[in-house]
Amino acid sequence: xxxxxxxxxxxxxxxxxxxxxxxxxxxxxxxxxxxxxxxxxxxxxxxxxxxxxxxxxxxxxxxxxxxxxxxxxxxxxxxxxxxxxxxxxxxxxxxxxxxxxxxxxxxxxxxxxxxxxxxxxxxxxxxxxxxxxxxxxxxxxxxxxxxxxxxxxxxxxxxxxxxxxxxxxxxxxxxxxxxxxxxxxxxxxxxxxxxxxxxxxxxxxxxxxxxxxxxxxxxxxxxxxxxxxxxxxxxxxxxxxxxxxxxxxxxxxxxxxxxxxxxxxxxxxxxxxxxxxxxxxxxxxxxxxxxxxxxxxxxxxxxxxxxxxxxxxxxxxxxxxxxxxxxxxxxxxxxxxxxxxxxxxxxxxxxxxxxxxxxxxxxxxxxxxxxxxxxxxxxxxxxxxxxxxxxxxxxxxxxxxxxxxxxxxxxxxxxxxxxxxxxxxxxxxxxxxxxxxxxxxxxxxxxxxxxxxxxxxxxxxxxxxxxxxxxxxxxxxxxxxxxxxxxxxxxxxxxxxxxxxxxxxxxxxxxxxxx
Length: 515
Known about the structure:
The structure is a single chain. It contains 9 helices and 29 strands. It has 2 domains: 13-49 and 311-512, no CATH class; 68-76 and 100-268 and 299-307, no CATH class. Helices cover 13% and strands 37% of the residues. The chain has helices at 2-12, 161-165, 219-227, 237-243, 313-320, 351-358, 397-401, 436-444, 481-485, and strands at 33-45, 57-64, 68-76, 79-80, 92-101, 104-109, 115-119, 122-123, 131-136, 192-197, 204-209, 212-216, 247-252, 260-263, 269-283, 286-297, 302-309, 330-334, 339-345, 361-370, 385-389, 394-395, 417-422, 428-434, 453-457, 466-468, 478-480, 489-493, 506-512. The protein is elongated.
């Protein structure tokens, strides 16, 4: 009774109706009264969506039995690490290596200093192969949109694969004789080891690098494009990005099951190592050769290109004919060029007015989404989902009020929630999102609007900004940016009356009656 009295007192002092200690209630609701409200929820297809300059991008092929196959290619501009590099006499390229780190963690450190790594954010069989071709891009990616008088940033969309493929330049650059670098590329978890010997002391040094993409690129191309380029082409990055318009990473099926990795290409680079004559220095009458290098960073504009195929029939039907009146039995959430759910709370006529008249003190309010375990049995599941105010295209109040942070982009906003709840087998059971403040404000403030809510998968819970749809739908012109970054999907039970009671989506409200 003392605890309950304290909670009630704290809430009564909350003039702005924010949750004080809301995260302490947990699943033990003491003697609070419970009310459940039906939720009308239906599917909405996400068509071609803006996908430029994302924090992470997918690369590869992911065959998801519940949704279909996603093929993810990528384009990026390049920037000179050093402007106007001074290139000496008789330069000869030794190697051109492209590197992009993978997300990984060290599982074991061996006695010799080597490490065993485990890769993260890779979906599909670990030994799967894809056909990877890296081309010079012939498509100039502008910073600003001329259609808007160069006042707005240029947008690029998920469905522009043909635009970039049609203007790719020449042959692929990753033309090494090893098929592991092109026709049978895989995301390898082995670390890279490089041993160098000091020319004076003969002491060997071993350098170990965490796993990542490492491709040997065509030396002749970079000799002509960079080493023997006219000086004005390498003077500024603005000029350089038009001269060398970037790289196009084209992904195709290798003839077997593929997989897809999430990568931060902004950390990628191309290192050109070459030798040149050292001026005024000779050894036995021959010029002294010195090692030099030029680095091209994967900075500037980029775009994720997504192609969908082999679409699951149930998924296609559900997103093609949603029932906005009664709601859908299953809700299909898929990232990228995928789908989302739209929720209407208090859809029963007069329900909200009755609750307001009761003058309840709202202690906690949750939406609990049950996963269709059978449909998701053979698919990777997103760790989190994101609920937001679709009407105004902004986060709900509880998201704003939650200041909790995690160790990475996937585990902040712990009170607001949206985490997957798993059974002992590791498969998902439910997602729960707390919207206490959203409901409290709606009930206490008679002039508050009962807005539509959007539900999507998310790659980064701390990112709440949006990207534009190429063609707006009847509900919005935008979708959350973090949803575009996530290649996964989940199938949830909706709030339709035909859904079994124990699986049906409902709004749960825990409240205290006034004295």
